[in-house]
Design brief:
single chain; about 350 residues; alpha/beta; Spore Coat Polysaccharide Biosynthesis Protein SpsA, Chain A; 2 domains; eight-stranded mixed β-sheet; globular
Length: about 350
Amino acid sequence: MSDFAQAGLICTLQRLNDSHLARVETELTELARARPIALVLPCHGRDLEQPAFARMLEELRGAAFLHEIVLSMNEVAPAALEALPARLAILPQKTTLLHHEPCADQRAGKGRNVRAAIAHLARAGECAIIATQDCDVTSFQRTDLARLCFAVAHPQLGYRFAKMYYSRVTDRLYGRVSRLFLAPLLHAVVRVAGHHPLVDFLLSFRYPLAGEVAFTRELAAELPVSSGWGLEIGQLCAVFRRVDPREVCQVDGGSGYDHKHQPAATALADMAAEIARELFTQLAAEGLANDAAFHAAVAAAYRREAAHALRRSASLALINGLPFDEAAEQEMFTGFARALNPGA
């Protein structure tokens, strides 16, 4: 059972039981008659051929609370693109396909997909609420999506922005970029620069890198969308500047939420480097230093914070009887430190 503790600047909506899930779906379907809901699925061509995507379509067949589903894609093979309308025919919702040709900026994929889908929905003006959902979630359940949308749709709750969080654990601990990089990096910034409203806001989120969010159409339309792996951090920083924290919440997506796992060293280090660049850019916009001395000080503090994070992860794995490869995690942490300060 989840806890009910409230910490940080935003409300946390834990999942305390499963008995409420059917009621949430039913009530959300009624609420959506007055405030229709659209779902954005940002997708890379390779995701279309994975079992996770096929399973997601099966789950979405029963999502009566959704008015429209926008599949916004890049790098889709011609044969897969031609087959998509037939695959999506099982969905009862209105479906829209947006396909984007390759561009010079290879990092633009997901960011461009999300940006184009939101622009389409804003122009159409049919849906009052927009949600985004990553397409590589092998454990996707529409009830988790319903809870996320419910937080924004229900007038008594009154949230304008909701972000899902979940534990990245199945047979072992995952979520290494969050555990070993972003959380320690934010604490490192606090060590160097002291508490700052933006950093405290980001630290309020249990899983700031989650791609699953719901927001009002008006808010979605005015938020800038970053490219590459900085998308989620950039989005939260934009929300911080535009929305009262009392109108922001995070919603428990349950346990066993299983994403596609990135290959270890190089892909995750590249991801960390992009996240760091986005974070430093956002901190500079808030008036914090963005020079070599600040970066070096944060990098040194990060090493200390990441060492603590590594020990905590090892303890968590041990008490839960999960395997933990400390050497591999140490190597990952070293790669993250190098990505943060390449010249060191």
